[in-house]
Amino acid sequence: MASPTDVTTAAAADDPDTGLRAIRALRDLADRLEVLQVSSARARGWSWQQIADALGVSRQAVHKKHATSRRDR
User: How far apart are CA 62 and CA 52, in angstroms?
Assistant: First the structure.
């Protein structure tokens, strides 16, 4: 597995194939980290609005993307 530094360097590569594949890997990583951190925030009692503010999105957007159970709604 490549390090985040390696992937970041590859994203800036001159070769579009290398760069675009690295960007996809970074997006996948960011999505996985977002799920992890939103779950952690909810477990600690954060409101959907607090999470949305931290992510720079609307409360509705973060709720729609991450609410998985009736308890989260």
Answer: 6
pLDDT in tens, 22-72: 999 999 999 999 999 999 999 999 999 999 999 999 999 999 999 985 566
Determine contact, residues 72/35, Cβ cutoff 8 Å: no
No. of helices (H) and no. of strands (E), the chain: 4, 0
Residue 58, helix vs strand vs coil:
coil
- For residue 8 the two structure tokens come to 């970041």
- With beta carbons less than 8 A apart as the criterion, state whether 35 and 62 touch: no
Q: Which residue has the tokens 């607090």?
A: 50
- Supply the pTM of this predicted model: 0.79
